[in-house]
Amino acid sequence: MFHAFSGLICLYIVCRLVPALPWPLAGKCLAVAALLLASQVHLISRAFFGTIASPELPFAVIVVWGWLFGALFLLFIFLLLKDLGALLLFALGKATGVGLSLPVPAIYWSNALIAAALGLSAIGVWQAIRVPDVRAVEIALDRLPAELDGLRLVQLSDLHASRLLQGAWHREVVNETNALNPDLILITGDLVDGTPANRAADVAPLRDLKARLGVLAVPGNHEYYSDYVAWMAAFDKLGLRMLSNRHVVIEDKGHALVVAGTTDRNAARFGLPPPDIGAALSGAPKDAVTLLLAHQPREAPVNAEAGVDLQLSGHTHGGQIAGLHFIVQKANGGFVSGLYRVGAMRLYVSNGTGLWNGFPIRLGRPSEITLITLRSVASGKAARRPA
Description:
Blueprint: H1 2-16, H2 25-39, H3 41-48, H4 59-96, H5 106-129, E1 133-141, E2 152-156, H6 167-179, E3 184-188, H7 196-203, E4 215-218, H8 221-226, H9 228-237, E5 241-242, E6 246-252, E7 255-261, H10 277-281, E8 289-293, H11 300-305, E9 310-313, H12 325-330, E10 338-342, E11 345-349, E12 368-376
Parallel strand pairs: 1-12, 2-3, 3-4, 4-5, 7-8, 8-9, 9-11
Antiparallel strand pairs: 2-12, 6-7, 10-11
Helix pairs in contact: 1-2, 1-4, 4-5
């Protein structure tokens, strides 16, 4: 289905753009071949270089293919908007009896759209693969004890270790995270793309994550695409405590803090336990503030009903491209990026620290290492620092 969709995008561009290019026939044929190749990059990856989730290709090849695929996608959007504009002008002309058309000849439109797509895609790839900035957020929780006011959490999400985001990139992320001196580090899924054997060196830096109260994590959908069971064992060796439908109770400054985690919605497809908030909170003290790690945000209303105070999620990558995030939001229960109130619960959805190598583009939706400072309403400080 994915390949068919990208193929239809390619067909639309070929039919609407290539005939208008002022190029000789040989040039137009090369353009069609390049568009077809870019549109089927994921099919080629699956057939010859591993899987769609994790093609085992050199970094430079993945970057160039990502740039071309991103340009194809952007070119489709630009061309579609241009054609809709022309159609609107035609309809207005018919209604008013006044001849209306786009003020620029088609030949110039073609060149401008191609240049814009290639240029913006290059910027988007650079934004996607650079080490993210720190995004600082303060979140006030009604039940947080005053003594825990100022607790510092770092959320990492969607690290997607791959041939695109390799060990050196993860080392820089770890260094940035440790420099924040967090009390607790929380990783909300999609840590890897590929098998433990192929990604061992890329995830090795995660062993050096340091926080006073520990490092906790949950799986995302991509953990299931490779070898879920093997990855859970590998993460344990790295010192990451995986919370798959379970919780831990952390004692700090005389108070209990519950940190729970659920599996991913895709688990059932692989014969593994699906998310179960009841199991995750079973036996947890009811009077303790509860944080939940859930890779996908869409179950937030159910988790709020279960008594969770703060849910941390990722998965959406913030929509990756401004404008596209409205579609991603619809597909994720209305949640895509930033802070939400869901009943009495707060939900924070990270834009992601990394992203999947199959669409390495970010435009207007930057990646992030999220520094979350918890504020206690009881302390009175939350009023001066609204979340």
